[in-house]
Each structure stands twice: as C-alpha cells, then as structure tokens.
Amino acid sequence: MLAESYAKIHSYSVSEAFKRALFEKIEDEYDLAVAESAHREYVDSGRKSTPVRDFWRELDEEG
Known about the structure:
The chain is about 80% helix and about 0% strand. By secondary structure, the protein is mostly helical.
C-alpha cells in the first residue's frame, strides 16, 4: 500500500502520515485563499506596481 510505504520511509505511523498530509493540504489551501484575497484587494485598489529595475535604480540614486 502506498500510504504504508510513505509512512515507513518517513518513520510515521500510517495514521500520522495521513494527519500530516491532511494538515499540509489545509495549509496549502489556506495560503492560496489568502494570496488570492490579497491579489484581488490589490487589483481592486487600482494601484500599480513598480518595475524592479526602477526600484534598483532608486536605490542606486540614494546610495
């Protein structure tokens, strides 16, 4: 069984392997939802980003 092999490789019980996989999936989905929300907020604000080359140019001018 795939789950048993995975658990054995990582020295987990099958139950622990499933718990960890589920928690990781939940974290990934939460991170994605937060990122999508932040992006939507940024786009809706109408603000524009600054190209990184302009950022570096500004830093050179200040230094």
